[in-house]
Structure formats: C-alpha cells, structure tokens
Amino acid sequence: MPPQSAQDLTSRGAGEEKVEARVTASYPLIIQGGMGAGVSNWCLARAVSRLGQLGVVSGTALDHIFARRLQDGDPGGHMRRGLDHLPFPEMAERIWRAYYIPGGKPGNASYKTLPLQTKDGPREMRELCIAANFVEVFLAREGHDNPVGINYLEKIQTPHLASLYGAMLAGVGYVLMGAGIPLKIPAVLDRFSNHETATYPLHVAGAQEGDDTTMTFVPREYMERDLPPLARPRFLVIVSSNTLATTMLRKANGSVDGLVIEGWTAGGHNAPPRGKLQLDEKGEAIYGERDKVDLEKIRELGLPFWLAGGYGSSEKLREAVAAGATGVQVGTAFAFCAESGLRDDYKQALIQKAIRGEVRVSTDSQASPTSFPFKVAHLEGSLSENEVYLARPRICDLGYLREAYRTAEGAIDYRCPAEPVSVYVSKGGKPETTREKKCLCNALLATVGLPQVRTGKYTEAGLVTSGNDLAGITRFLPPDGSGYNAADVIAKLLDG
Ligand SMILES: Cc1cc2nc3c(=O)[nH]c(=O)nc-3n(C[C@H](O)[C@H](O)[C@H](O)COP(=O)(O)O)c2cc1C
After folding, report:
1. What is the pLDDT of residue 207?
2. How far away, in angstroms, is 7 Cα from ligand 1 center?
C-alpha cells in the first residue's frame, strides 16, 4: 500500500520517500456518485469504500458545511478528530476558535454569515476550504485502506484550488468532476503533489484580453512546515457527450484517468439536451436520440469508463460491463440509505412515497442558477412546492453559483440570478434570467439538516434532488419498509 496522505508520509519523515505518482489500487466496479451538498458525506463514502467499492465525498460547499457542523457543537467530535490530524495545527486552532460552539447554537439562532469566496480569497475561506476538504476525506478514509474519492462541480470555481489541496493533504485517491469542462484540473493535481503553486482560469463573463482572470494558490503560504510529496489522485471526468469526452482527452493539460458517462435520468444537475431546448407539456426538457452517448466511440478512447444514470441494479451493472464499461456510478440508491447526509424526515417521507408508488421526479430547466436542468423530487414542505418558493425572501449569502462578470470599470464582480432581482439587474443581469430561479445553495444545505435561520423566524427549506430511479429504491428495503444501508445497495448490485 503506498502512502496516501500527509500523515502516512510524515510518519516516515518528510522527504524520505518519493511517493509513487499514482494510487495503485485496481479500479472499482461500483462508484458511489458524489452527491452535493453533503448528501455523500464522509459516513456514506467510508461505508462504501470499506466494502471495496469507491466511496466519494461531495466537495461542494464543504467550507460552510464544516463551519456549521462546528456551530452545531460538533456532535460525536468527528470534526475535532479530523482537525487534530490536519498537518497545520495553528490553522486548525484558528478555525476551531472561530466556529466551534460548545453544545451547539440555539435552534432559532442563525449560523454565522461567512465572507463569500472570490477570485483572490479571502484567506479565511481558503483556510476553511483546506481544513474542511481535508477532514471530510480523512474521516472517509478512517478504519480501512481502500481509496476514497471527492467530487466537485467545475462550475463552482472559486474554491477549487484550496479544496483540492486540502483533499490531497488527506490522501484522496480519486478526484471526479462534472458540470463543466475541467481541462485545467490535471496540472493542478500534478503541481499540488509537490506542494507547488497552481493556477486555474476563472470564467468571467465579458472578460477582455489583458484582464487578469487567473486564480492562484500557493501552498507555501499556508504550510506551517515542510511536507513530503503527496500522492497524485486519479482524475475522472463526468461527461454526457462524445464530444466532451474527446475534448477532455485531446485538450486537458495533463492525464485524465477515466470517464463517467452520465445520462439524463441521473440525479443532480443534468447536461442540457442537444440542440434547441424543447419542453414537454409539464415544462420539462425533452431528451432524445441525439443525447445518447455512442459507447463504441467511448470504447475507442481506450480509457476505463463507468455508466451512470439508472444503473443501480445488478442487471444494469451486468449490462454496463457487457458494453465494455469498468462498472457503474450510482447515486439515487445511495442518497436514501441510512449513512447519507440527507436529513431524516425528507429521507423517510420519500421512502414512504416510493413504497406507496407516489414519487414524482421532474427535470426542472429553470430552477438552477447555473441554467443546467436540475432533477427535483417532489416533496411537501420543500422548495419543490410553489408556495414554499414564493414565501422565501430572495437572499444570496452563500454564493457558490454566482457568475463572475466584468464590471464597466474593468473589475470583477459576482452575480446570481437567484439573488434579489433588482440587485441582479443592477449588475447587468437580464430580469428574465431570474424567473423561477431557486437558491440551491441555501436549499441544499437545508436538505442536509444545516438550514440557515433568518432573524429567528424564517428557516430555509430544503430541496431534494434525485434521479428518475427514485421509485426503484424499494428494491433495497426490508419487508417492514423501514430503511436500508449502503451495504444493502452494494449487495444487491453485486447479486448474481
Ligand atoms: C442527491 C444527489 C445529488 C447529486 N449531486 C451531484 C454532485 O454534486 N455532483 C455530481 O457530479 N453529481 C451529482 N449527482 C449525480 C450522482 O453522482 C450520480 O452520477 C447519479 O446520481 C447517477 O444516477 P442515478 O441517480 O440514477 O444512480 C447527484 C445525485 C443525487 C441523487
């Protein structure tokens, strides 16, 4: 087993051993898909990886998730245990002092409002990203020797560099990225394996030649001591078209180790249909033949690949392998198992709906500020209901899905179509873009039990995303319908 983390390495003495560039474990048959924000948490990923498949933590919004767990009093002491292993103890203490509330904040009190991430910082948030990503991966790796992955959305760019560095410090074995074209990630992984400065281009709407849109992260500005090199994780790209798969291979600035081919029935964000957007009578995006990936062409690329989107059964796993895939990536089945971060009342309500045959999942082409279609599971009391959506005051205070844009003065500012309409329009945004936009940032944190409370009165409602396969989760349930765990999903998938 090669060393996979700063701990493994430093226990041998810094610099004594040059780390092998790759984690040497063979490829998994089942990847438990990354599910943001906080649905695929360290508990779920650890349960899956312990069983020899690939557990993947979500890296989305981990800075806020981590700070809120500390403000909730760190139940179980897991965050503290993780922080104790961060190789930067002064940073760990700064974060602990800033956010930890013994016994947890009162239920009707708000969580701290944190500064939003921008192209250049602020440092407080960069440190929080390093620590939060480190701890999530560290905890998912505890108690076994199998690799753990981390998932990011390319579109959420400002936290990328600090997050990747934190995850690599904890020995992450795989980085998986979709929702964008992550051409420039491979070189970041290469450079961070030697603690070297890395850069990433921030997409800035309206940027002009000569504008500085490059984000830079210098590990040495955060390191409290020298560390030996880190293992370079494998990099898997999540794609929904042959063109994107080919582009990644031809143009990425370093090695891509595999592809996840995700269809439009998958949970979370989906790629938009090809060509002109057409909606059915329920207002849902229509997908067709043109949106199917040609697996023959994928096989010709010669990389390992996994199929995702409705592959959560042993029949579909066999079908994928017969089609030349290394295996499958499964999300929905794991999202509703006991170990996932999805809050319990939502989980139970949707399991019961599945048992009664009443689930409804739609592809909402308006809800997400990213403008990607977003899968929504309908649930009373959640943001899937129009009354709940209309009752919510528009506030943008987490800001992950903000778009960077060039101001008239040539500076960089940020805007989100789910923020107050007047604010968005004052930043040059079009009013029609704001229509039906939902604050997924606040909603998804509420979905994992970390809702913001506003002036002690209004509590943010959640929004559950799920694949079309939600009705099928009944196949993992025991006869009393109570619930199931990650091991049940894996056992069923491997059955036969
Ligand atoms: C609750 C939920 C959240 C998800 N969030 C993400 C995400 O943050 N990033 C991502 O790449 N995929 C995300 N996905 C997609 C999964 O990783 C996986 O590819 C997909 O669910 C596979 O299809 P299935 O749901 O039919 O099994 C999410 C899926 C679910 C169900």
Report:
1. 96
2. 31
- What is the number of the ligand 1 atom nearest to the C-alpha of 60? 8
Report the CATH number at residue 483: 3.20.20
Regarding whether 302 and 389 lie in a shared domain, the answer is no
Q: With contact defined as beta carbons under 8 Å apart, do 138 and 170 qualify? A: yes
Say if 368 falls within a structural domain. no
Cα of 170 to ligand 1 centre, how many Å? 23
Q: Is residue 17 part of a domain?
A: no
Amino acid identity for residue 446 in this structure: A
Atom of ligand 1 nearest to the CA of 58: 8
Q: What percent of the chain has pLDDT over 70?
A: 95
Any atom of ligand 1 within 6 Å of the Cβ of 56:
no
Residue 321 placed within a domain = yes
How far, in Å, CA of 240 to CA of 298, rounded? 11
DSSP secondary structure string for all residues of 95-159: HHHHH--TT---TTSPPPPPPPPBTTB-HHHHHHHHHHHHHHHHHHHTT--S-EEEEEETT--TT
Q: How many domains does the chain divide into?
A: 2
pTM attached to this predicted model: 0.94
pLDDT of residue 319: 96
**35, 60, 262, 492, best to mutate for ligand 1 pocket (most atoms within 8 Å of CB):** 35
pLDDT at 358: 96
Do 163 and 244 belong together in one domain?
A: yes
Instruction: For 90-115, write each residue's pLDDT tens digit.
Output: 999 999 999 999 999 999 999 999 99
Give yes or no: residues 323 and 418 share one domain.
no
Q: Which residues of the chain have pLDDT under 70?
A: 1-25
- Among candidate residues 235, 133, 228, 130, the one with its CA nearest the CA of residue 188: 235
Query: Which ligand 1 atom minimizes the distance to the CA of 37?
Result: 8
> Cis before residue 37, ω within 30 degrees of 0?
yes
CB 162 within 8 A of CB 126: yes
CA of 267 to the centre of ligand 1 (A): 4
Range of the domain at 250: 30-352+473-494
Q: Which amino acid is at 199?
A: T
Are residue 129 and residue 44 in the same domain, yes or no? Answer: yes
